[in-house]
């Protein structure tokens, strides 16, 4: 909180923050002066021209003053044009990423984020190197989400079937809130994550470790790791607790009642189908809210998940 | 003058005489009762929201229920309350009388639009028992095309309500063109008429677009036609364009009538001819026209092209100019007047203060780079409540108090009126001022839970909402009480110069006037004190 220029703004932790806060601060001063002016005039006129006896008429009936009217039209227009120009300048700066920016893919879904790093790691966590421009290439698996880090002053909607981009340079070591800013259902406010900004060397060590972390894992451990990374836990518990989706505890090779009234055995094929085509056979009592994971899991990862579910007795 | 003693309330009795009435005054009163009920419901949902947000975590409603609450609050307040409030209740009652007419141009159509509103209300309320309505009043696809029955029906309700709004608009346009009294040229019209006229044009032109959009959304849900659904090759951003093409002009449908009310009240209680009559009239029209071209400012971070965003931002600033001019004109009207601080005037002055804040923070959001940070945060929530509630609702309350003696023939308690106004003012600012701060600090909207650093602002806001609620209940109680024990109203208790006060009784007779009024002076021609 030491880096806060204004108490009403979040920490300044990206290259955009300082100039934005300054400009906005200037505008707030202008706005406060206008409001003070309007309020002062209102109170002054009201008290000065208050009716003292019931038959009192107005002291004058002034309905025009060309000079004054031009003044109070042109001055706001000029101020507005100034603000417009400053806003466009800042906006274009935000829209055009430098060529050497570190590209990270972001996949949003109900209700988790996946970050795919150029080094090959695919993680639910966003870790960023200090003072390196970063370009996020975003998409969504289901509905519209919005990627928002207040401390960086950046926001961009993530849309299904489309890429949107966003860039910034983190300028301060620390952890910051990442919010979803577009309404996306039950756990909309639960899509909060922490973004970590670290020294570049620390970032490289972390991302390399994560990229290689799945090598040599047993199928069960791999499945457990995929379960965590792909955001499954947002809806499915592994301990029998109720959630948005059915729990996975004691599910495997047991009978499951479906929404259409039939029953199936939750065998390996049912699990595979439910991950690829989640709406094909919906469990009774649940809405079909899960996005498809088609094209997102390798065969080994799928095998790992199934192996992991078997252990959840 | 022999028959003139029987007013429109006494002429016929019984429930059926109300249900089948084509009298614009009775329809106006039915709207007043209806929108008040909608406001009460929407307000209760708002209080439940604020109660849940008093502390982080889940207090008494689960996330799904919370999401349903904010959606219902929005749908009810926007489509059932604020759009029909001033035109439906005050406009219906006052517009024909201010024109010197005996009714609107199409009285039966007028009743039809009331019943469409009522059907819309019934459907919207029926979604309460259909399951979990969510997605917000904006119904963004693809979230809303998952086949949720409650959402489909809520969208259908909005579709029906759109027709209610179109018919009211159509009626007012024709009425203003065709039924003005002899001598009432366009520039002798009261500014309330100008404002309703500009609003009516927007209602007629913009509302069909949202009608089509909502039908497409319903078809997408039922038939899966692939217009908005990305899984079928559709474009969800297209929905946003369609939706805001109506819903931004709709913002002016909501606020312009309030401008009209304020333009009546300030001259009356200042005994002043309004400063810059033509400017105020034309700026209403200018706002209505430019208002059609700014919808993209809701979509700066949606993936819309940078060029489009730049153009929309530019036009947004342009629409700010006539709005600012209006505020200066109202202020200038106070100058050298004879000001009396009755309750309607108090609400009008509260409007000026709150609306100025709403306008200034709207400019904040028009700055492209700033909007990236503030979009979909509580700053936006606070901004549009300052405009919609601080503006339109204060204008509505001002108007209800101003025309209450005319509509009911009774005077309300001035003391309680003032107590209510001060409570509303204090509660309103305590509710929404902290929301500006937590919004700039990054608190996103539509969250049922939040991180602890925002707690203090949520607490203040919730306390404010309680005070605001008390203020509004005070107003409800003394207004209803006045029907039973209020002093009988004179024909023109405020000494106003417009037709409804000068020529029509309080309450008016069924056909408003016993003889056709002829207009000989402007609506705000007050005299000047002559020094003895």
Would you write up a description of this structure?
The complex is a heterodimer of chains A (313) and B (532). Chain A has 313 residues and is of the alpha+beta class. Chain A has three domains: 17-50 and 62-95; 102-211, Cupredoxins -  blue copper proteins (Immunoglobulin-like, Sandwich), CATH 2.60.40.420; 219-311, Cytochrome c-like domain (Cytochrome Bc1 Complex, Chain D, domain 2, Orthogonal Bundle), CATH 1.10.760.10. Chain A contains six helices and twelve strands. Chain A has helices spanning 17-48, 66-95, 200-211, 219-229, 268-276, 299-311, and strands at residues 102-109, 112-116, 122-123, 126-129, 134-140, 145-149, 154-158, 164-168, 174-180, 193-198, 255-257, 263-265. In chain A, a hairpin with a 5-residue loop joins strand 2 and strand 3 (122-123). Chain A is elongated. Chain B has one domain: Cytochrome c oxidase-like, subunit I domain (Cytochrome C Oxidase, Chain A), CATH 1.20.210. Chain B has helices at residues 15-19, 24-52, 63-98, 107-126, 149-178, 191-223, 236-270, 277-290, 306-334, 343-366, 368-374, 378-408, 414-440, 455-485, 499-502; strands at residues 410-411, 487-488. In chain B, helix 2 packs parallel to helix 4 (107-126), helix 6 (191-223) runs antiparallel to helix 7 (236-270) and helix 10 (343-366) packs antiparallel against helix 12. The two termini of chain B are 39 Å apart. At the A-B interface, helix 1, helix 2, strand 7 and strand 9 of A face helix 3, helix 7, helix 9, helix 10 and helix 11 of B.
């Amino acid at each position: 909180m030491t880096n806060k220029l204004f108490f009403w703004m979040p920490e300044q932790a990206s290259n955009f923050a300082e100039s934005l806060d300054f400009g906005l601060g200037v505008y707030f001063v202008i706005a406060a002066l206008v409001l003070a002016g309007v309020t002062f005039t209102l109170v002054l006129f009201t008290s000065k021209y208050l009716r003292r006896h019931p038959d009192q008429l107005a002291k004058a009936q002034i309905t025009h003053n060309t000079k004054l009217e031009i003044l109070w039209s042109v001055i706001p227009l000029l101020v507005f044009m100034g603000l417009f120009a400053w806003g466009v300048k800042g906006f274009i700066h935000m829209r055009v990423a430098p060529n050497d920016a570190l590209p990270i893919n972001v996949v949003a879904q109900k209700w988790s984020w996946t970050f795919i790093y150029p080094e090959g790691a695919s993680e639910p966590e966003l870790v960023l190197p200090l003072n390196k421009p970063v370009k996020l290439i975003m998409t969504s698996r289901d509905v519209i989400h919005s990627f928002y880090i207040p401390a960086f002053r950046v926001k961009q909607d993530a849309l299904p079937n489309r890429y949107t981009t966003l860039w910034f340079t983190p300028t301060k070591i620390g952890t910051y809130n990442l919010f979803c800013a577009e309404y996306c259902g039950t756990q909309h406010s639960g899509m909060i994550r922490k973004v970590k900004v670290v020294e570049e060397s620390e970032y490289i060590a972390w991302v390399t470790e994560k990229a290689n972390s799945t090598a040599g894992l047993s199928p069960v451990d791999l499945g457990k790791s995929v379960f965590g990374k792909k955001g499954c836990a947002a809806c499915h518990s592994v301990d029998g607790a109720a959630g948005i989706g059915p729990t996975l505890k004691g599910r495997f090779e047991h009978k499951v009642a479906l929404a259409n009234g039939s029953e199936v055995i939750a065998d390996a094929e049912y699990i595979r189908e439910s991950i690829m085509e989640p709406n094909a056979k919906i469990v009774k009592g649940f809405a079909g809210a899960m996005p498809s994971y088609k094209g997102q899991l390798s065969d080994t990862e799928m095998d790992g998940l199934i192996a992991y579910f078997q252990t959840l007795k | 003058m022999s028959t003139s003693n029987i007013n429109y309330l006494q002429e016929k009795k019984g429930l059926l005489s109300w249900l089948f009435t084509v009298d614009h005054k009775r329809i106006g009163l039915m709207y007043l009762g209806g929108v008040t009920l909608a406001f009460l419901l929407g307000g209760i949902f708002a209080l439940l929201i604020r109660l849940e947000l008093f502390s982080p975590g889940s207090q008494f409603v689960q996330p799904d229920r919370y999401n349903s609450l904010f959606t219902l609050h929005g749908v009810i307040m926007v489509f059932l309350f604020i759009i029909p409030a001033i035109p439906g209740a005050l406009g219906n009652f006052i517009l024909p009388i201010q024109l010197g007419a005996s009714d609107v141009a199409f009285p039966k159509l007028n009743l039809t639009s009331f019943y469409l509103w009522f059907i819309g209300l019934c459907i919207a309320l029926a979604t309460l028992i259909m399951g979990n309505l969510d997605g917000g009043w904006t119904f963004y696809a693809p979230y809303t095309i998952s086949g949720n029955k409650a959402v489909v029906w809520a969208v259908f309700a909005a579709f029906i309500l759109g027709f209610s709004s179109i018919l009211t608009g159509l009626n007012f346009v024709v009425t203003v063109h065709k039924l003005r009294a002899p001598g009432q040229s366009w520039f002798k019209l009261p500014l309330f008429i100008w404002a309703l006229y500009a609003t009516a044009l927007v209602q007629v032109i913009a509302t069909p677009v949202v009608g089509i959009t909502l039908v497409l959304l319903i078809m997408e849900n039922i038939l899966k036609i692939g217009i908005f659904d990305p899984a079928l090759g559709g474009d969800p951003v297209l929905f946003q364009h369609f939706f805001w093409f109506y819903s931004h002009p709709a913002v002016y449908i909501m606020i312009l009538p309030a401008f009209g009310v304020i333009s009546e009240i300030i001259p009356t209680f200042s005994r002043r001819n309004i400063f810059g009559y033509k400017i105020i009239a034309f700026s209403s029209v200018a706002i209505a026209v430019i208002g059609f071209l700014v919808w993209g400012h809701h979509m700066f971070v949606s993936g819309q092209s940078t060029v489009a965003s730049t153009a929309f931002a530019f036009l947004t600033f342009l629409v700010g100019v006539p709005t600012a001019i209006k505020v200066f004109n109202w202020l200038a009207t106070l100058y050298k007047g004879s000001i009396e601080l009755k309750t309607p005037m108090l609400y009008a002055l509260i409007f000026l203060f709150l609306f100025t804040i709403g306008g200034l923070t709207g400019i904040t959001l028009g700055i492209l780079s700033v909007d990236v940070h503030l979009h979909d945060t509580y700053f936006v929530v606070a901004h549009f409540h300052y405009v919609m509630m601080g503006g339109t609702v204060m204008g509505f309350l001002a108007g209800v108090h101003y025309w209450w003696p005319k509509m009911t023939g009774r005077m309300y308690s001035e003391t309680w009126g003032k107590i209510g106004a001060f409570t509303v003012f204090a509660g309103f600012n305590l509710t929404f001022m902290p929301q500006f701060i937590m919004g700039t600090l990054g608190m996103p909207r539509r969250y049922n839970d939040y991180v602890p650093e925002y707690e203090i602002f949520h607490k203040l806001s919730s306390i404010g909402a309680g005070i605001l609620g008390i203020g509004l209940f005070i107003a409800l109680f003394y207004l209803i009480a006045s029907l039973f024990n209020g002093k009988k109203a004179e024909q023109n208790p405020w000494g106003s110069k417009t037709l409804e006060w000068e020529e029509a009784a309080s309450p008016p007779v069924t056909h408003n006037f016993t003889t056709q009024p002829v207009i000989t002076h402007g609506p705000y021609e007050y005299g000047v004190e002559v020094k003895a």
